[in-house]
Write a structure and sequence with these properties.
66 residues; 5 helices; globular; mainly alpha
Length: 66
């Protein structure tokens, strides 16, 4: 899924997917380092997570995140 979303974000150009590691393109929300990376990435951001929906921050549900 991360590869598909990365290609959509880069308008189908695979150079970004090939040059930027997965953990930088879609950092894990559950880790401190991943959260810092996600906040530093330009919008629209890709974020990876295995958190159950009940543990997501409440602000997530009122945002425009997809």
């Amino acid at each position: 899924m991360l590869e598909i979303l990365s290609l959509i974000r880069s308008d189908g150009d695979p150079r970004w997917c090939r040059s930027v590691p997965n953990w930088d393109r879609g950092p894990w929300l559950e880790t401190v380092l991943g959260l810092r990376r996600a906040k530093g990435n330009p919008r629209p951001r890709l974020i990876s997570s295995h958190l159950p929906v009940q543990l997501f921050p409440k602000a997530f549900f009122t945002s425009k995140a997809k």
